[in-house]
Structure formats: structure tokens, C-alpha cells
Write a structure and sequence with these properties.
155 residues; mainly beta; Porin; twelve-stranded antiparallel β-barrel; 55% strand
Length: 155
């Protein structure tokens, strides 16, 4: 599965290779909460930024219950984000804050790449093994954008 996560204002549009919009992530009116909606507008998950700064943290909710926590382990020396859910642990690890290798429970299962467009805007490319894919994966790109986006835009 290959997806493109495109930030525009307070939204993120998630498209496939044929530029079909599969999901939208939009910011709630107040606070640091974003909703992941499918193509029909149905709310699937939400992500809330709990902490900012050098080690931002996020919480992913499903049906108003905590589904997963996302924590930035390091912004600079060993750029990485850890995502912990009930029966799974994901690690997104990079050497340059742009190209992340994704592992699930220690096994590599995909990549998340930051691309700088000609306009200077960022776009995120997700490549995930089809058998591993789930609807919440675009939220990893949102967390990467919130944690590393400003650093990557200034390059």
C-alpha cells in the first residue's frame, strides 16, 4: 500500500497513487486534536497532541478510548518515534528526520518518507506492506509533521 499525506492549512489529505482521496485529517475547532475521516466523512480515529517541545507526545483515540500513544524519543541525535498500542509496538526510526523505517514488534513493515515539494511544502509518502495496513497509519505522518515538520521546512 502506498499513500501520500499532503498537509494543507489545518488539514491533511491522504491519497493513493491514482490521486484518489481516501482519508482526510482535519483539525477540531479548539485545541490540538485532529480527526481522521474516511472518504465518506465517517470519523475513524482522533489524534491529540499532549506535549510539545523536544519530545512531543500524542494520543490516538478510537471511539473515545485510548487506542495508542505516540512518543517522540529524540528529535536530534537518534530521530525516532515510538507508537504503543494494546498488542503492538511500532518504531519509526531515522538518521535524517526525513526518511523513517517502520517496524512493528521488531519487524520491518514499511517506510515513511518526507518529500519537499518545489513550493517548499512538505508531503509524506507511506509505503506499508499490504497485510499490515490499517486505517490509523496516516496519523503517523501527522505525528511526524508535528514533531519534525518545522525542522524539515527550514532546511
Amino acid at each position: 500500500m502506498e499513500l501520500f499525506v499532503i498537509p494543507k492549512g489545518s488539514k491533511f489529505f491522504v491519497q493513493d497513487k491514482k490521486e484518489r482521496e481516501l482519508y482526510t485529517v482535519k483539525k477540531k475547532t479548539f485545541g490540538n486534536r485532529y480527526l481522521l475521516l474516511d472518504a465518506s466523512g465517517y470519523e475513524l480515529y482522533s489524534i491529540t497532541q499532549l506535549k510539545e517541545g523536544k519530545k512531543p507526545e500524542f494520543q490516538v483515540d478510537l471511539n473515545e478510548e485510548i487506542f495508542m500513544t505516540i512518543k517522540c524519543l529524540s528529535l536530534f541525535l537518534d530521530p525516532s518515534i515510538e507508537c504503543i498500542g494494546k498488542d503492538m509496538t511500532f518504531l519509526l526510526k531515522s538518521t535524517d528526520r526525513r526518511n523513517f523505517i517502520m517496524t512493528k514488534n521488531g519487524n520491518e513493515m514499511g517506510k515513511l518518507t518526507t518529500v519537499t515539494l518545489m513550493t517548499g511544502d512538505l508531503q509524506y509518502e507511506l509505503q506499508i506492506d499490504d497485510k499490515e495496513f490499517d486505517d490509523y497509519f496516516p496519523l503517523f505522518a501527522v505525528a511526524i509533521d508535528k514533531a519534525f515538520g518545522d525542522i524539515n521546512r527550514s532546511k
